[in-house]
Specification:
The complex is a heterodimer. Chain A is an alpha+beta fold. Helices cover about 25% and strands about 25% of the residues of chain A. Chain A is built from 14 helices and 24 strands. Chain B is of the alpha+beta class. Chain B has five helices and five strands, in the order ββαβββαααα. Chain B has a five-stranded mixed sheet with strand order 2-1-5-3-4, with helices on both faces. In chain B, α2 crosses α5. The chains are: A alpha+beta, B alpha+beta. The structure holds FE2/S2 (inorganic) cluster (2 copies).
């Protein structure tokens, strides 16, 4: 256990420091960096899901007005490494999914580029494709990476002997991150060196991935990304769009090439949450104590590159149970490459688990909160380690109190108001409390303060503000004296803003740098004095299972005649250690819960089995919550600090807000109507009178 | 062939020539370097590109630049006078009505246009009494701001900010 940092700026409701620029539209997002004489890129996409582009006729495009270059696999620059098939684009005419890049036009204006791309004709040799996920798919196999299966005790006998049991199948659909700022890159090559002004959750990790593929030394690739218009994971790793911009720019050295992925293209290029199929069996004693916990999950993956959406992940540590069996499989299909989307693993996994817990509560006649309390394990069921601070029960109890859980009727269909059926639901939330080693912060004394440099990212997470607060307290100075610099590989290394590890990891570097700075230069340093420090791994990770917890409460109304479902209110109670900035933290929790509302009620990519594309590939058809969908959402947290999280005492909060939110809504819908929906999203037809 | 176009943007006059296919949004961003309005979808589906044209809110990605010759365009940046944030801007800051900020200039313009519509007593689909003055309840604000998506999920704070600004302007 380390000593906690004394706080003065931390914990205050600081208004976003980048806010004045953002409300006016002056913050510079990727597309908006001033560059001279840019060219514009429009890509050519594969129109079949599997096969080959036999011929690509670019002659008309090359002759079109304003066209500077047409890129295809026939003339694309060489790559140093082709191991990553998502990123090693334009190597051959082979097609692995519909919407894959086949080439690009670079022209003087965006209109010219788009017109010329339309003039390219491609003849295809089509092969049969398969984009349909099934539990019994013959290609189903264990993922190449991931936690592996778990077998403890004898689940089948325990289930057979259980007083109460549940055996159900749940599913979550294809979901798309859809940050409001599309993935965007300006690429420029100058004398063998490449600059990418882009939108990424981590400039250094992106550089480490792309530089070897492009055959560049790290110092030959600069990545700049001071402001990121949302990411939710999709900008956590580079996708093929950055490669396309980089390769196109190489053909026109010295000229910047601008490429903003269109909203439609994002559905095949920039990652998505893979659909999952979840078979859950729970066995319990009459008092609700779980004796058997079996979870068999299958997720869709891509033939091009594997990505397991590990729904079983939260099942490892969430509830007790002497007999356990967890299996995770993937089915690689001819589909775009899935990737991170807010709380990968936990978000879909806690849909099945938390609806199943609600079903167990009903079956055993126990209040769903009490059922969770009875199954709250002493130690981590997976590792046997003690938890850092498992306050799930506190979140459930305190949250129930604040939400008004006692107004709930345990009998479905008992609360009605003017044609609406009203119900309440609860679900638990959890997310690992990770901290990554390796970030470096540099602190320099200036004439009027301290410059703190670290290549962190702010994707709306509040880094500009919260990390400034951390730096101020680390140096024991007012925040006005801190000038933070982030989002550029010219600054010291920072790990990715992902897995809710960002602020904790970067703060560890800032704390280390501040300590070194004070040791080396004292409290009255000369201008120009400088030190740096590096974040170490959290030693507590070896002795404790590090997680955050929370509880979601929801009240919905469903129209008895039409099945229309509306959310009256949602409340989230979280345990996340120290909260660095209550103003921005509340927004992050609420934002996660709002996305959870979308997950529950709206979001589903409709993959057409005939053509292999997402049919509803825009914001008119792929529904995300709009303002009128969100009535009342509130979040609160336990007043605490987590000594196992390091001197900052804080755990990440970017993801836990979405975990469990959808299940709370589904459980509330059951409580309202008596209709149990096990497949997300909950569309109104499920509740129509039959 | 490019055609001449006059635009006044945030009080500044511009004369340029654009391709007939150029949208108002692309004219602003690609030709004039006015980056306050954002592109989120280019299809009129998200509201990130919302600007005020002659005082009314408009999705600038759905407008062809040439059909707005001689128009006066105001972006969120132009709502700040002499570099001072407007009350609406300040309400967005105080209520933390954004996270990544990408939808925000569009939200601000939409809110400004909407407050004027309400002041002019234009009803919305949730307005009960079409004859009475519009009472900007949270429900009215939510309805009237639903053309502006925020994937960061700042809606509850956006409603609070717009409500605060409406309150202050009374
Ligand atoms: S960019 Fe205009 S509405 Fe989305
Ligand atoms: S603030 Fe990020 S989309 Fe609205």
């Amino acid at each position: 256990m380390s000593d906690l940092l004394a706080t003065s700026a931390i914990g205050t409701r600081q208004v976003r420091l980048d806010g004045p620029d953002k409300v006016r539209g002056r913050a510079t997002y990727a597309y908006e960096h001033p560059v001279d004489d840019p060219l514009y890129l429009c890509p050519l996409l594969a129109m079949i899901a599997r096969g080959r582009a036999a011929t690509i006729d670019t002659s008309a495009a090359e002759a079109a007005d304003g066209v500077v270059h047409v890129l295809t696999h026939e003339n694309a620059p060489a790559l140093q490494s082709t191991d990553d098939a998502e990123l090693a684009i334009l190597r051959s005419p082979e097609i692995g999914f519909r919407g894959q890049y086949l080439g690009a036009v670079i022209a003087t204006t965006p209109e010219q580029a788009r017109h010329a791309a339309d003039l390219i004709t491609v003849s295809y040799v089509q092969e049969d494709h398969d984009v349909e996920l099934r539990e019994d798919h013959p290609a189903s196999r264990p993922p190449e990476s991931g936690g592996g299966d778990v077998t403890v005790g004898d689940v089948d006998s325990a289930l057979a002997e259980a007083a109460v049991s549940i055996d159900q199948r749940y599913s979550t659909p294809m979901e798309h991150n859809n940050p409001m700022e599309p993935h965007t890159t300006i690429a420029r090559w100058d004398r063998g060196e490449l600059t990418l002004w882009t939108s990424t959750q981590g400039v250094h990790p992106t550089r480490s991935t792309l530089a070897p593929i492009l055959g560049l030394e790290p110092d030959q690739l600069r990545i700049v990304s001071p402001h990121v218009g949302g990411g939710f994971g999709s900008k956590g790793v580079p996708h093929a769009d950055m490669m396309l911009a980089a390769l196109a720019a190489k053909a026109v050295p010295g000229r910047p090439v601008k490429y903003a992925v269109t909203r439609q293209q994002m559905f095949s290029i920039t990652g998505y949450r893979a659909p999952t199929l979840q078979h859950i069996r729970l066995g319990a004693r009459a008092d609700g104590t779980i004796t058997a916990f079996a979870f068999d999950a299958v997720s869709m993956s891509s033939q091009t590159k594997e990505f397991p959406e590990e729904a079983t992940k939260p099942a490892r540590m969430m509830y007790a149970g002497d007999n356990r069996r967890l299996t995770q499989r993937v089915v690689p299909l001819d589909v775009p490459v899935p990737s991170w989307m807010r709380a990968p693993g936990e978000a879909p996994g806690m849909v099945g688990i938390e609806i199943a817990m609600d079903e167990l509560a009903v079956a055993s006649g126990i209040d769903p909160i009490e059922l969770r309390v009875r199954n709250d394990p002493e130690n981590d069921p997976d590792t046997g380690l003690p938890f850092n601070q498992r306050r799930l029960v506190d979140c459930l109890r305190e949250g129930a109190e604040r939400f008004g859980w006692d107004e709930r009727s345990s009998q479905p269909r008992t609360r009605r108001d003017n044609g609406w059926l009203i119900g309440m639901g609860v679900a638990s939330a959890t997310y690992p409390a990770g901290r990554q080693p390796g970030s470096v912060a540099r602190i320099r004394r200036t004439s009027d303060g301290y410059e703190v440099a670290i290549a962190a990212a702010d994707l709306g997470t509040g880094t500009w503000t919260a990390l400034t607060q951390v730096a101020a307290d680390s140096l024991d100075v007012p925040i006005e004296q801190v000038e933070l610099q982030i989002g550029d590989t010219d600054l010291p290394n920072a790990t990715v803003a992902g897995g809710s590890t960002g602020l904790a990891s970067w703060s560890a570097a800032v704390l280390a740098a501040a300590e070194t700075f004070r040791r080396e230069h004292g409290t009255d340093p000369a201008s120009g004095a400088q030190s740096q420090g590096e974040a170490q791994a959290n030693p507590a990770a070896e002795k404790f299972a590090l997680h955050s917890f929370g509880a979601h409460f929801a009240e919905v109304r469903i129209h008895a005649a039409t099945g229309e479902i509306r959310v009256n209110r949602m409340f989230g109670m979280f345990s996340a250690g120290r909260i660095v900035n209550p103003r921005t933290a509340r927004s992050q929790f609420i934002g996660g819960m709002t996305m959870g509302l979308g997950m529950a009620l709206h979001e589903k990519g409709e993959l057409d089995p005939r053509f292999g594309h997402v049919v509803n590939h825009d914001l008119a058809e792929y529904h995300v919550p709009v303002n009128a969908d969100v009535a009342e959402i509130e979040a609160a947290w336990l007043d605490e600090e987590d000594p196992q999280a390091g001197p900052l005492g804080a755990r990440g909060i970017g993801e836990i807000g979405i975990v469990g939110a959808a299940a709370a809504l589904a459980n509330a819908a059951y409580n309202a109507t008596g209709v149990r929906v096990r497949d997300l999203p909950l569309f109104g037809d499920a509740f129509l009178p039959r | 062939m490019d055609h001449p176009l006059n635009l006044t943007v945030d009080g500044q006059e511009h004369t340029l020539a654009v391709d007939p296919r150029t949208t108002l949004l692309d004219a602003l961003r690609d030709r004039l370097g006015v980056m306050s309005p954002k592109k989120g979808c280019d299809h009129g589906q998200c509201g990130a590109c919302t600007v005020l044209v002659d005082g009314r809110r408009l999705n600038s990605c759905l407008a062809l630049a040439l059909s707005h010759d001689a128009a006066a365009v105001t972006t969120s940046d132009g709502l700040a006078t002499d570099g001072e944030l407007s009350p609406l801007h300040r309400a967005f800051l105080e209520q933390d009505a954004f996270q990544c900020g990408y939808c925000t200039p569009g939200q601000v313009c939409s809110a400004a246009g909407m407050l004027q519509e309400a002041a002019d007593d234009a009803p919305s689909v949730v307005t009960e009494d079409l004859e009475a003055p519009v009472d900007l309840t949270d429900e009215e604000i939510r309805e009237r701001m639903s053309g502006n998506l925020c994937r960061c999920g700042a809606y509850v704070n956006i409603v609070a900010a717009v409500s605060q600004a409406a309150e202050e302007s009374r």
